[in-house]
Design goal:
By secondary structure, the chain is mostly helical. The chain has eleven helices and no strands. The N and C termini lie far apart (about 60 Å).
Length: about 250
């Protein structure tokens, strides 16, 4: 008897694959897209964060050598770090504006998108030109931080229904954005506490050079903001990728 050879599995034709894809539900398609987004972010996001950290290390290294480089100054206007931060914020504003113009999804609401476009556009201009640093009055400078902190805290509370709807569509995007906002807040609002409670007491034990405490605080502040904005932008891109055209297909 001749042995029976098992026939190779038949490959699906393009038309059959199209039928199978059309039979998939919205959650199935969203789960596939979420897997792709997670796979990309798993290596791309750490790479971006390391590149931004290397910029902060180069900034501190050149200051320690006594030869600061103007274009990587973390505490100046129109430098590479400020343009990077402004680029992240403008990209977020552009995503919100694009979603507003698409008008094919009720999540988030149009009111939230309009507010985000306005706030983010102002924040980008502030980051490029350092508007909050132009005034010598400490009260005015703290007022800017109060406005930003108030927006971060009150927007999710006032528009909790939108946040809940976004969470139901993709919890991963919300968690990534929340992590980014947490890192941003540590850099923007807690760097002075870190300087006074951690860096200043340890500095004399690490080196006898004076003046480095404030430079290190600036690096922590600006890098925290940059890292936070990178994570929020990645979350926004993930959410846009997962939900583009979903509402039309699922109707």
């Amino acid at each position: 008897m001749t042995p029976e050879h098992s026939s190779p599995p038949n490959r699906l034709s393009s038309s059959q694959a199209l039928v199978l894809r059309s039979q998939q539900t919205g959650p199935d398609r969203r789960a596939q897209r979420a897997a792709i987004a997670t796979r990309w972010l798993r290596w791309l996001l750490p790479l971006l964060l390391m590149l931004e950290a290397s910029l902060a290390i180069a900034y501190l290294w050149n200051i320690a050598q006594g030869h600061p480089i103007a274009w990587i100054d973390f505490n100046a206007r129109e430098t590479l770090p400020s343009w990077l931060q402004a680029g992240h914020i403008l990209a977020l504003a552009t995503l919100c504006g694009w979603r507003l113009l698409q008008n094919d999804s009720p999540t988030p609401s149009r009111l939230v998108l309009r507010l985000l476009v306005f706030v983010l556009s102002f924040a980008a201009a502030d980051e490029i030109f350092k508007i909050h640093l132009m005034s010598q009055a400490e009260m005015i400078r703290h007022a800017f931080f109060g406005v930003y902190l108030g927006a971060i805290v009150t927007l999710p509370v006032l528009f909790w229904r939108d946040l809940k709807a976004v969470w139901q569509l993709d919890p991963g995007s919300v968690l990534l954005a929340a992590s980014g906002l947490g890192v941003f807040c540590v850099g923007a609002f807690a760097s002075e506490w870190i300087r006074d409670l951690v860096i200043a007491p340890l500095w004399p034990l690490l080196t006898d050079r004076a003046g480095g405490v404030e430079y290190l605080r600036i690096a922590i502040e600006e890098l925290g903001e940059l890292w936070g904005e990178t994570c929020v932008l990645a979350a926004a891109l993930r959410f846009q990728w997962l939900t583009t055209g979903a509402s039309r297909r699922d109707r």
